[in-house]
Amino acid sequence: MNRAALMAKFKNHRLFVGERANDAPIALTHRRIFILPSSRGLGFGVLVILLLLIAFVYGNNLVYLLAFLLSGVLLVTILHSFMSLSGLVLQQSQSKPVFAGDAAGFAIHVSNPSKNERQGLEIGFVAISEFNLAPLSKSTLTLYSPTSKRGWHEPGKVTIASSFPLGLFRAWSPIRFDLKVLVYPKPAAQLSPFPENSAGAGAAANAGLKGSDDFYGVREYQAGDAIKHIHWKAFAKGQGVLSKQYGGENASEIWLDYAQTHGYDKEEKLSELCRWVITAEQMGIRYGFCLSGLKLPPGNGFQHYQQCLEALALF
Fold it and tell me: Mean pLDDT throughout 101-128?
Protein backbone atom coordinates (compact mmCIF):
# COMPACT_ATOMS: atom_id res chain seq x y z
CA MET A 1 0.00 0.00 0.00
CA ASN A 2 1.51 3.34 -1.06
CA ARG A 3 1.73 6.38 1.17
CA ALA A 4 -1.24 8.22 -0.39
CA ALA A 5 -3.53 5.22 0.09
CA LEU A 6 -2.28 4.80 3.65
CA MET A 7 -2.98 8.46 4.47
CA ALA A 8 -6.46 8.25 2.92
CA LYS A 9 -7.26 5.17 5.00
CA PHE A 10 -5.96 6.92 8.12
CA LYS A 11 -8.11 10.03 7.51
CA ASN A 12 -11.20 7.86 7.02
CA HIS A 13 -10.66 6.02 10.31
CA ARG A 14 -13.60 6.20 12.71
CA LEU A 15 -11.32 8.16 15.04
CA PHE A 16 -11.92 11.13 12.72
CA VAL A 17 -15.16 10.42 10.82
CA GLY A 18 -17.11 8.30 13.29
CA GLU A 19 -19.30 5.30 12.65
CA ARG A 20 -21.61 4.80 9.68
CA ALA A 21 -24.29 7.49 9.31
CA ASN A 22 -27.85 6.72 10.43
CA ASP A 23 -31.06 8.39 11.63
CA ALA A 24 -31.50 6.45 14.89
CA PRO A 25 -30.60 7.88 18.32
CA ILE A 26 -26.92 7.31 19.13
CA ALA A 27 -25.71 6.36 22.61
CA LEU A 28 -22.08 7.14 23.41
CA THR A 29 -20.27 3.99 24.50
CA HIS A 30 -16.58 3.13 24.89
CA ARG A 31 -16.46 2.27 21.17
CA ARG A 32 -17.45 5.80 20.15
CA ILE A 33 -15.43 7.82 22.68
CA PHE A 34 -11.77 8.70 22.12
CA ILE A 35 -9.38 10.34 24.59
CA LEU A 36 -6.03 12.07 24.06
CA PRO A 37 -4.02 14.38 26.34
CA SER A 38 -4.30 18.09 25.72
CA SER A 39 -1.27 20.38 25.58
CA ARG A 40 -1.84 21.05 29.27
CA GLY A 41 -1.97 17.31 29.91
CA LEU A 42 1.28 16.74 28.03
CA GLY A 43 2.96 19.43 30.13
CA PHE A 44 1.57 17.81 33.25
CA GLY A 45 3.00 14.45 32.16
CA VAL A 46 6.43 15.99 31.52
CA LEU A 47 6.32 17.47 35.03
CA VAL A 48 5.65 14.04 36.56
CA ILE A 49 8.57 12.53 34.61
CA LEU A 50 10.89 15.31 35.76
CA LEU A 51 9.84 14.76 39.39
CA LEU A 52 10.54 11.04 39.08
CA LEU A 53 14.01 11.79 37.66
CA ILE A 54 14.76 14.25 40.47
CA ALA A 55 13.56 11.75 43.07
CA PHE A 56 15.72 9.01 41.54
CA VAL A 57 18.86 11.16 41.31
CA TYR A 58 18.62 12.58 44.83
CA GLY A 59 16.85 9.65 46.45
CA ASN A 60 14.20 11.97 47.87
CA ASN A 61 11.15 10.07 49.13
CA LEU A 62 8.99 13.20 49.38
CA VAL A 63 9.54 13.94 45.69
CA TYR A 64 8.64 10.32 44.93
CA LEU A 65 5.43 10.79 46.91
CA LEU A 66 4.58 13.99 45.02
CA ALA A 67 5.27 12.34 41.65
CA PHE A 68 3.09 9.33 42.47
CA LEU A 69 0.33 11.61 43.77
CA LEU A 70 0.31 13.65 40.55
CA SER A 71 0.38 10.43 38.50
CA GLY A 72 -2.74 9.29 40.36
CA VAL A 73 -4.44 12.60 39.54
CA LEU A 74 -3.54 12.07 35.90
CA LEU A 75 -5.04 8.58 35.82
CA VAL A 76 -8.22 9.57 37.67
CA THR A 77 -8.69 12.50 35.26
CA ILE A 78 -8.78 10.07 32.33
CA LEU A 79 -11.72 8.25 33.92
CA HIS A 80 -13.61 11.47 34.65
CA SER A 81 -13.06 12.74 31.10
CA PHE A 82 -14.49 9.48 29.73
CA MET A 83 -17.47 9.56 32.11
CA SER A 84 -18.34 13.12 31.06
CA LEU A 85 -19.47 11.72 27.68
CA SER A 86 -20.28 8.08 28.40
CA GLY A 87 -23.99 7.28 28.23
CA LEU A 88 -25.12 10.48 26.52
CA VAL A 89 -27.75 9.94 23.82
CA LEU A 90 -27.85 12.15 20.71
CA GLN A 91 -30.67 12.37 18.19
CA GLN A 92 -31.17 14.50 15.10
CA SER A 93 -34.26 16.50 14.18
CA GLN A 94 -35.67 17.81 10.92
CA SER A 95 -34.19 21.00 9.48
CA LYS A 96 -35.91 23.80 7.59
CA PRO A 97 -34.80 24.83 4.08
CA VAL A 98 -32.80 28.03 3.72
CA PHE A 99 -31.70 30.33 0.92
CA ALA A 100 -28.14 30.13 -0.41
CA GLY A 101 -25.80 32.29 1.65
CA ASP A 102 -27.77 31.79 4.87
CA ALA A 103 -26.65 29.48 7.67
CA ALA A 104 -28.58 26.22 7.85
CA GLY A 105 -29.69 25.24 11.35
CA PHE A 106 -29.67 21.62 12.51
CA ALA A 107 -31.39 20.75 15.80
CA ILE A 108 -29.62 18.07 17.86
CA HIS A 109 -31.22 16.60 20.98
CA VAL A 110 -28.75 15.58 23.71
CA SER A 111 -30.07 13.47 26.63
CA ASN A 112 -28.37 12.71 29.94
CA PRO A 113 -29.98 9.50 31.32
CA SER A 114 -27.67 9.33 34.35
CA LYS A 115 -27.90 10.98 37.77
CA ASN A 116 -24.60 12.77 37.26
CA GLU A 117 -24.33 16.32 35.99
CA ARG A 118 -22.35 16.68 32.76
CA GLN A 119 -20.21 19.82 32.73
CA GLY A 120 -18.05 21.51 30.13
CA LEU A 121 -19.60 19.81 27.10
CA GLU A 122 -18.86 21.09 23.59
CA ILE A 123 -20.69 20.29 20.36
CA GLY A 124 -20.63 21.56 16.80
CA PHE A 125 -19.54 21.14 13.19
CA VAL A 126 -16.78 23.74 13.06
CA ALA A 127 -18.00 26.45 15.43
CA ILE A 128 -18.34 24.98 18.92
CA SER A 129 -21.24 25.53 21.35
CA GLU A 130 -20.61 24.98 25.06
CA PHE A 131 -23.28 23.69 27.43
CA ASN A 132 -23.94 21.72 30.63
CA LEU A 133 -26.50 18.98 31.21
CA ALA A 134 -28.31 18.49 34.51
CA PRO A 135 -28.97 14.93 35.73
CA LEU A 136 -31.81 13.12 33.94
CA SER A 137 -32.32 16.04 31.56
CA LYS A 138 -32.47 16.73 27.84
CA SER A 139 -31.24 19.71 25.85
CA THR A 140 -31.85 20.75 22.25
CA LEU A 141 -29.08 22.66 20.54
CA THR A 142 -29.20 24.24 17.09
CA LEU A 143 -25.93 23.88 15.20
CA TYR A 144 -25.33 26.13 12.20
CA SER A 145 -23.52 25.36 8.98
CA PRO A 146 -22.91 28.05 6.30
CA THR A 147 -24.30 27.45 2.80
CA SER A 148 -23.01 28.85 -0.47
CA LYS A 149 -24.96 27.17 -3.28
CA ARG A 150 -28.42 25.76 -3.94
CA GLY A 151 -29.29 22.07 -3.75
CA TRP A 152 -28.81 19.58 -0.94
CA HIS A 153 -26.40 20.70 1.75
CA GLU A 154 -24.71 18.17 4.04
CA PRO A 155 -22.79 19.69 6.97
CA GLY A 156 -20.75 16.57 7.79
CA LYS A 157 -20.02 15.01 11.14
CA VAL A 158 -21.07 16.39 14.52
CA THR A 159 -18.36 16.35 17.19
CA ILE A 160 -19.24 16.30 20.89
CA ALA A 161 -16.33 16.72 23.28
CA SER A 162 -15.33 17.50 26.85
CA SER A 163 -12.13 18.50 28.68
CA PHE A 164 -13.71 18.12 32.11
CA PRO A 165 -12.54 18.26 34.86
CA LEU A 166 -9.01 19.72 34.66
CA GLY A 167 -8.45 20.16 30.94
CA LEU A 168 -5.63 17.58 30.98
CA PHE A 169 -7.40 15.26 28.54
CA ARG A 170 -9.89 15.83 25.73
CA ALA A 171 -12.56 13.20 25.23
CA TRP A 172 -14.51 13.43 21.97
CA SER A 173 -16.87 11.47 19.79
CA PRO A 174 -17.36 12.12 16.05
CA ILE A 175 -20.96 11.34 15.09
CA ARG A 176 -22.48 11.07 11.63
CA PHE A 177 -26.20 11.56 11.19
CA ASP A 178 -27.98 11.64 7.83
CA LEU A 179 -28.08 15.43 8.11
CA LYS A 180 -29.00 17.39 5.02
CA VAL A 181 -31.09 20.42 4.20
CA LEU A 182 -32.47 21.81 0.95
CA VAL A 183 -30.95 25.14 -0.05
CA TYR A 184 -33.03 27.44 -2.29
CA PRO A 185 -31.35 29.80 -4.78
CA LYS A 186 -30.34 33.16 -3.40
CA PRO A 187 -33.08 35.66 -4.39
CA ALA A 188 -31.99 38.46 -6.69
CA ALA A 189 -31.16 41.63 -4.78
CA GLN A 190 -33.46 43.75 -6.95
CA LEU A 191 -36.89 42.84 -8.27
CA SER A 192 -37.23 43.13 -12.03
CA PRO A 193 -40.72 43.60 -13.55
CA PHE A 194 -42.97 40.55 -13.67
CA PRO A 195 -43.43 38.93 -17.09
CA GLU A 196 -46.03 40.64 -19.29
CA ASN A 197 -48.39 37.70 -19.81
CA SER A 198 -51.78 36.25 -18.87
CA ALA A 199 -53.88 38.96 -20.49
CA GLY A 200 -52.23 41.90 -18.79
CA ALA A 201 -51.95 40.34 -15.36
CA GLY A 202 -48.23 41.03 -15.35
CA ALA A 203 -48.85 44.70 -15.99
CA ALA A 204 -51.38 44.79 -13.16
CA ALA A 205 -48.94 43.15 -10.80
CA ASN A 206 -46.19 45.53 -11.85
CA ALA A 207 -48.52 48.43 -11.22
CA GLY A 208 -49.06 47.07 -7.75
CA LEU A 209 -45.29 47.02 -7.23
CA LYS A 210 -45.13 50.69 -8.15
CA GLY A 211 -47.61 51.66 -5.45
CA SER A 212 -51.11 51.06 -6.92
CA ASP A 213 -52.33 49.48 -3.70
CA ASP A 214 -55.38 51.66 -2.91
CA PHE A 215 -58.16 49.84 -1.11
CA TYR A 216 -61.28 49.60 -3.26
CA GLY A 217 -63.51 46.89 -1.76
CA VAL A 218 -63.93 43.47 -0.21
CA ARG A 219 -65.04 40.04 -1.41
CA GLU A 220 -65.62 36.66 0.12
CA TYR A 221 -62.42 34.92 1.22
CA GLN A 222 -61.06 32.41 -1.28
CA ALA A 223 -58.47 29.71 -0.65
CA GLY A 224 -55.01 31.13 -1.30
CA ASP A 225 -55.85 34.73 -0.35
CA ALA A 226 -53.12 36.38 1.70
CA ILE A 227 -53.85 36.29 5.44
CA LYS A 228 -52.83 39.94 5.79
CA HIS A 229 -55.75 40.90 3.50
CA ILE A 230 -58.44 39.31 5.69
CA HIS A 231 -60.97 41.86 6.96
CA TRP A 232 -60.66 41.05 10.64
CA LYS A 233 -63.06 43.76 11.81
CA ALA A 234 -65.84 42.35 9.63
CA PHE A 235 -65.05 38.84 10.93
CA ALA A 236 -65.29 40.07 14.53
CA LYS A 237 -68.74 41.54 13.78
CA GLY A 238 -69.95 38.17 12.51
CA GLN A 239 -70.08 39.22 8.86
CA GLY A 240 -68.10 36.18 7.69
CA VAL A 241 -64.58 35.88 6.33
CA LEU A 242 -63.94 38.64 3.81
CA SER A 243 -60.81 39.59 1.89
CA LYS A 244 -59.75 43.18 1.26
CA GLN A 245 -58.93 44.05 -2.34
CA TYR A 246 -56.42 46.61 -3.51
CA GLY A 247 -55.62 48.20 -6.81
CA GLY A 248 -54.06 45.77 -9.24
CA GLU A 249 -55.64 42.67 -7.65
CA ASN A 250 -58.54 42.35 -10.08
CA ALA A 251 -56.16 40.72 -12.51
CA SER A 252 -53.82 39.17 -9.95
CA GLU A 253 -52.83 36.03 -11.82
CA ILE A 254 -49.47 35.76 -13.54
CA TRP A 255 -47.15 33.17 -15.02
CA LEU A 256 -43.54 33.07 -13.82
CA ASP A 257 -41.48 31.45 -16.53
CA TYR A 258 -37.75 30.65 -16.49
CA ALA A 259 -37.63 31.43 -20.23
CA GLN A 260 -38.65 35.05 -19.54
CA THR A 261 -35.94 35.83 -17.01
CA HIS A 262 -33.18 38.29 -17.88
CA GLY A 263 -30.09 36.84 -16.16
CA TYR A 264 -26.81 36.23 -17.96
CA ASP A 265 -26.40 32.66 -16.76
CA LYS A 266 -28.39 29.85 -15.20
CA GLU A 267 -27.84 30.90 -11.59
CA GLU A 268 -28.79 34.53 -12.23
CA LYS A 269 -31.96 33.41 -14.00
CA LEU A 270 -32.89 31.13 -11.09
CA SER A 271 -32.21 33.94 -8.61
CA GLU A 272 -34.50 36.28 -10.54
CA LEU A 273 -37.24 33.64 -10.77
CA CYS A 274 -36.84 32.99 -7.04
CA ARG A 275 -37.35 36.71 -6.33
CA TRP A 276 -40.51 36.71 -8.47
CA VAL A 277 -41.93 33.75 -6.54
CA ILE A 278 -41.23 35.38 -3.16
CA THR A 279 -42.72 38.73 -4.18
CA ALA A 280 -45.81 37.22 -5.80
CA GLU A 281 -46.45 35.18 -2.65
CA GLN A 282 -46.03 38.22 -0.41
CA MET A 283 -48.44 40.25 -2.57
CA GLY A 284 -51.09 37.52 -2.52
CA ILE A 285 -50.97 37.17 -6.32
CA ARG A 286 -51.92 33.84 -7.86
CA TYR A 287 -48.93 32.72 -9.90
CA GLY A 288 -48.24 29.88 -12.28
CA PHE A 289 -44.74 28.47 -12.51
CA CYS A 290 -42.79 27.16 -15.51
CA LEU A 291 -39.33 25.62 -15.29
CA SER A 292 -37.83 23.26 -17.89
CA GLY A 293 -40.78 20.94 -18.44
CA LEU A 294 -42.34 21.54 -15.01
CA LYS A 295 -45.55 23.54 -15.15
CA LEU A 296 -47.54 24.31 -12.01
CA PRO A 297 -50.99 25.90 -12.40
CA PRO A 298 -51.63 29.32 -10.85
CA GLY A 299 -52.02 29.32 -7.09
CA ASN A 300 -50.46 30.61 -3.89
CA GLY A 301 -50.14 29.63 -0.27
CA PHE A 302 -47.38 27.75 1.53
CA GLN A 303 -47.63 24.46 -0.36
CA HIS A 304 -47.53 26.10 -3.79
CA TYR A 305 -44.73 28.42 -2.68
CA GLN A 306 -42.70 25.49 -1.36
CA GLN A 307 -43.18 23.46 -4.55
CA CYS A 308 -41.81 26.32 -6.63
CA LEU A 309 -38.77 26.90 -4.43
CA GLU A 310 -37.98 23.18 -4.26
CA ALA A 311 -38.06 23.00 -8.05
CA LEU A 312 -35.64 25.93 -8.24
CA ALA A 313 -33.29 24.34 -5.68
CA LEU A 314 -33.12 21.01 -7.50
CA PHE A 315 -33.08 22.31 -11.08
Answer: 93
